[in-house]
């Protein structure tokens, strides 16, 4: 059980981050949810997790595109035994047309934020004598697709940084790993299905199998619960010697 541990999950008011927060809470960890907004709904998510699992759950606003706010999130959390760097955005365009501001935002949120949160959290983990850094990379941390230059650069970057953090903590009871999801059924992806069905005049099943999951050999989405379960595993004693590596949850994508 992760009882008594505090987990900070960046970008966790929706999708994979929220799914991971739920599974960590179900495993007994106190959780800190985060995004750049500060709405009643954001705080209600934390209430719901606390109410259903019995752990302490809080929502802390911090913009992961700003280094000082990344560090402030960890300070405000007060404890950070488990750090899940999940916040991320995407933009798709050929490199010669890729807007500079989009490039900067993707590198800041998908890569730089993990540098700042990790730098702030490691001293706390060392003091506590235990720690887990789990970076949510992507199949695009290991392989590429056209038009995703910033995203692929950031995700390869975070895989590299994960290895360095693992080496710097190798002789301590701290591990650092990256999870590399393929296509995951988040609300964001779900919302694209009806439009794509119209666009291609295809059934829901055909859109999923032939358009969305073209590169995912299993022809099934990974779920946020499966990502959460993988994260809980990396926090377990069984995973104490797993460090500096990647775990793909991609239905065989990177085996191709
Ligand atoms: P999502 O859009 O549902 O979640 C992204 C989260 O990041 C949201 O909670 C959002 O509020 C937050 N966020 C965005 N900008 C932020 C900022 N400036 N500061 C703080 N929080 C911010 O998408 P998701 O699919 O759940 O993605 C989560 C992570 O998983 C991302 O790093 C993404 O690259 C990665 N990923 C997703 C998939 C997929 O198929 N969905 C596949 C591989 C990797």
UniProtKB/TrEMBL annotation:
GO terms for biological process, alphabetical: monocarboxylic acid metabolic process
InterPro entries linked to this entry: 3-OHbutyrate_DH, NAD(P)-bd_dom_sf, Sc_DH/Rdtase_CS, SDR, SDR_fam
GO molecular function per UniProt: 3-hydroxybutyrate dehydrogenase activity
Pfam families reported in the protein's UniProt record: adh_short_C2
Entry's family note: Belongs to the short-chain dehydrogenases/reductases (SDR) family.
Family annotation (PANTHER family): 3-OXOACYL-(ACYL-CARRIER-PROTEIN) REDUCTASE, 3-OXOACYL-[ACYL-CARRIER-PROTEIN] REDUCTASE FABG
Protein name in UniProt: 3-hydroxybutyrate dehydrogenase
PROSITE patterns: ADH_SHORT
Organism: Pseudooceanicola lipolyticus
């Amino acid at each position: 059980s992760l009882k008594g541990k505090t987990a900070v999950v960046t970008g966790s008011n929706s999708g994979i981050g929220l799914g991971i927060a739920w599974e960590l809470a179900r495993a007994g960890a106190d959780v800190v949810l985060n995004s750049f907004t500060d709405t009643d709904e954001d705080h209600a998510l934390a209430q719901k997790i606390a109410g259903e699992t019995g752990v302490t759950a809080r929502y802390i606003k911090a913009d992961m595109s700003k280094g000082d706010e990344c560090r402030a999130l960890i300070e405000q959390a007060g404890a950070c035994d488990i750090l899940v760097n999940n916040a991320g955005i995407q933009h798709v365009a050929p490199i010669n047309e890729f807007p500079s501001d989009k490039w900067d935002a993707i590198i800041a949120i998908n890569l730089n934020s993990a540098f700042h949160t990790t730098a702030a959290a490691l001293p706390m983990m060392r003091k506590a004598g235990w720690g887990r850094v789990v970076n949510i990379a992507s199949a695009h941390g290991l392989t590429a697709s056209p038009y995703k230059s910033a995203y692929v650069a950031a995700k390869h970057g975070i895989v590299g940084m994960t290895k360095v953090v693992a080496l710097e903590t190798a002789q301590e009871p701290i591990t650092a790993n990256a999870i590399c999801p393929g296509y995951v059924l988040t609300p964001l992806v779900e919302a694209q299905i009806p439009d794509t069905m119209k666009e291609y005049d295809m059934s829901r099943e055909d859109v999923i199998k032939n358009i969305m999951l073209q590169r995912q050999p299993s022809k099934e989405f990974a779920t946020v619960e499966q990502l959460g379960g993988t994260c809980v595993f990396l926090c377990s004693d069984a995973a104490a010697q797993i460090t500096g590596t990647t775990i793909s949850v991609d239905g065989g994508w990177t085996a191709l």
